[in-house]
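1st attempt posting a full record on here, be nice pls
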Amino acid sequence: MKRASLRPVLAIVVAAVVAGAIITGLLPGYWTYLATAVLISAVALQGIGLVAGRTGMIALCQMSFAGVGAWTVGFLNVGGAPGGLAVWIVIGGLAAVPFGVAIGLPALRLRGINLAIVTLGFATAFDAILATITFPGQTRFISVARPAMFDGDGGYFVFALLFYVALAVALEFLARTRLGAIWLAVRHSERAAAAHGISIPRAKLSAFAISAFIAGISGGLLAGYLGTLVADNFSMMQSLVLFAVSTMTGAQFAEGALIGGILAVAFPEILRRLDLGQDIGNLLFAIGATQALSAGEAMSETLRRKVRGFRGARPAAPHPGVAIAPPAPPPRHQGVALATRELGVRYGTVVALHGVDLTVPEGAVVGLIGPNGAGKSTLIDAVAGFLHAYSGSVELGGRAVDGQPAHVRARNGVRRTWQTTRIAPELTVGDYLRLAGGDLPEEQVGAILSWIDCPHPDTPVASVDAGTRRLLDVAGVVAARPKVVLLDEPAAGQSYDETLKLGRRIAEIPNLFGCAVLLVEHDMDLVRAACSEITVLDFGRVIAAGPPAVVLEDPRVRKAYLGIEEGSAAA
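the predicted structure (as tokens):
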């Protein structure tokens, strides 16, 4: 996954060098000691930022993972394990990973407050367990040994700074990979991510595992910082405070984690020096977190947006003048791409679909029309794998896909769009196309965007209007070149001229991309322009199927869909 610039990475490295020189060279020893604690907190916040800020899950047990890392370092220190503190810290991070995966498992079914309660319960239980285990070496007065060259307070600050920078740079690069884009897609819409073939369980578990690793690193750094620890260093309340700070500052970014570390560690000390109550800090945290949630933008996100605005928008280069490579040979009615056999869906006593037989030939664009409530969206959900409680069967290329989850069906060749766009706004146009279609060559990304008349690949999705995002939805599903594309009202938000143009583009999909198309649409002009066949649903039953000219003149269709009784004047 490609991004436009490596400026954030360079900024992190340069800022670290400057800050390290200033703090170790100019600040008194106490403030250097305090700055080290800021860095350790910033490392822990980076882990929370990954799972909460990037993936959109609530995790209130980050300090429990840190405790695993810290106690692992303590045992390795007492046992005289080879490698020294740096190696022990990494091992401590790895020891926290299984706990992260275990806590991530409930996230596969739970969301929001329910997931928060589960993670908070784990933190509470871990508090009780950790309180019964004395930190290794504490009773024998054996402190965790620091590396010889980083033994002093200034040296250990540099040691912690190296870990912070290494993790910040690694996470910045990770955000540019396909995995980083997947996390953002899951955060914005799990269903839309699954429709692109993304495994939601794998995405969530990877986020929890890496987050736990980072937290374990912070715990190991804290063990070297203090020498010996107690269970209160990793209490449930510490996790809650860090989560609130992460929400306020946007700890998914390196600068947000650092700002959070300053607020969590240095700000209380500043209040104490000014003889101000600590309640003032709690009040400001509450106001800041509330503001971030209500505005939908944390401190670091605001900072990055303003920096981009100060630099000015970079003019986009024109689309590469490369043609879309068509499949060879382009399929045209060679077989059946998609078929439903006696498909039925019930919601209690309500029958949404009743024995629906639908066929989409290879190389064809088939329209699926009907009045509101006819069952069109239900059929799309059943075919795409988002609805499993149906009778009958769904066949893709002659093979039944019943029982397969949505992301597996997507990988096997069924892709869909939605009635409302669900593209993660943090991505660029090119990022989204590569996420949806795989790691496409740059020239193909530009060619597909040019074909559908979408902006340059470097354009942020957040700056694109709703109508263009609908076009980008279409570009994303066809870029993957699946067997069947399910388009759910793609013309919403388009003008009349844009709708006709979109109809011509949809009609080109089979030849250009080798996909059969099932088009759900209310706009009859678009249906006539794009479709070679039409199936009409009414009250969950197929009432007509065939060429548009024939179907649209069927008296049952005119009555049910067009509102025209037989014998009435044509509209």
